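no rush on this but wanted to send it before i forget. theres a chain ive been looking at and ive put its sequence and its fold in token form underneath. please have a look and point out which stretches look like helix strand or loop to you. thanks a lot i owe you, the record is right below:
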Amino acid sequence: MIAEGTLAPDFALPDHAGSTQRLSELRGKWVVLYFYPRDNTPLCTTQACGLRDMFPQFDTRNVVIFGISADSVQSHATFRRKYNLPFALLADVGAAVSTRYGVWKEKSLFGHRYMGIERTTFIIDPTGRVARIFPKVRVRGHADIVLKTLEELELGV
């Protein structure tokens, strides 16, 4: 996994509408990248809706939020529309970006091993550096924690 204080790996990924989003084009803004396993699963939906519900507080701070999973553009479009998500969902089909960020890992469910995304959030500062990493995110209350951390980082606390 990458470390806090290092330059965040740049990427160019299609969003839910098929437009390409590049991290490097967001210099000068705070960015929240949250990597999640799959669209339309209970925990992923709870996480996305938590960020949706607090989106006005992020938006007034001019913070860009991207949700990233290995799901397709079409899956993201459906998920975003179904839950009225106001931020972009990026399709990392093939998991190249998830791998660069160190969140594509071997997982296990009922003895079955498979590769997937470990739920992780990164806060990227306006210079493009990783300001904070939240590994193995617990979904409930996470949006509050991210917003509070952003406030502290902006104040230099």
The first helix runs from residue 42 to 53. Strands lie at 12-14, 20-22, 31-35, 64-69, 88-91, 104-109, 112-117, 120-124, 130-134. The chain has five helices and nine strands.
